[in-house]
Amino acid sequence: MNLKKLVQQRFEEKFGEQPAFVIRAPGRVNLIGEHTDYNDGFVMPMAIDRAVWLAIRPREDGRVSAHSLEMDDPIDFEISNLGKPGQGWGEYVKGVTWALLEEGFELSGWEGVLTSDIPVGAGLSSSAALEMATAMAFMAISNTEWNAPQMARIGQRAENDWAGANTGIMDQMISASAAQDHALMIDCRDLSTQLVPLPPKTSIVILDTMTRHTHTGSGYNDRRNECEAAAKHFGVEFLRDLDKVTLQKNSIGLDKTLLRRAIHVVSENDRVIQAMSAMQNQDPHIMGLFMNASHDSLRDNFEVTNRDLDLMAALAQETKGCYGARMTGGGFGGCVVALVQEEQAERFATEVAADYFNVTDMQPHIYICKATGGTEVVKN
Ligand code: GLA
Fold first, then answer.
1. Which of 132, 230, 244, 359 could form a disulfide linkage to 25, CB 3.0–4.6 angstroms apart?
2. How many domains does the chain have?
3. Which residues are catalytic, by number?
């Protein structure tokens, strides 16, 4: 059964009527532009055909109440009495509620049922999708128009200041504003976007190493701090403002690790722009080369891969039908994304999975995905 039907049916069983709204909020995969968003730079993600589905109806008593078909602990809280951040999936719902109130929104309550097929912790933005589903629930209930950049900022604020993960804006932004069959080039400075069509006759394949990351752990925040320190050395507010020539000219005296971090960000921003041209020219070969180069830089300069990500990327790159492959998301575990010839995608997936299993004894999850639209109220 598809998830829309499932969530509708469970809602009807529980509440004895049809939901007022069914909301879909997708996860994402980033094609290129990694660890550039919090440097005010460029990213090029797409939304995937895996999503959070939320069926709701309004409540008059100022409470939000929901249960997840996958998670144990249902949520039930008063909008005007959120208390302090705690643990569990419900914190993303509370965090968005908190951030909306902080931004001056007047909120009414709702109740419902949700489900999701975005794997948690794999780097496919299950939490950003939940945040955007929550934001859309509040907007739908109060009949307020969806403002994607504004809602993305609210989701980021929930993530940073409520859930305590100091992440950038990419995940919320793509979940909030994606377009079907396209990637989106996002300028994380002003949140302007450009639609970029996927090369014809290609598939996007996500290969989950099954090793996991956490963004509240130190690695991600360390990289942010290192980027800030490097920007300070060069006298710019963000590494986005640094070009290759100035980077080379003014690198004397900079700690070698910080220099490598800066080299990654400056070169990765360039790669996003060039990858966008390759996609616009419908050239998957060139696009693939930039993806491979991105992985190399994330491994050698930014040092956010692990052994399994390096292995998976290498296996993918060597397998017939692959134009290019790289780790995607925050790193330290999670997924590799590959651009593959469409008619080779199934065979490619089987071969890489077998090769990866042979070396690691881990069975990877593989998703051949479609680029979908962003968070929406789905018509009945
Ligand atoms: C995580 C964060 C994003 C971004 C990526 C790295 O997914 O949530 O904001 O920083 O890592 O590109």
1. 132
2. 2
3. 171
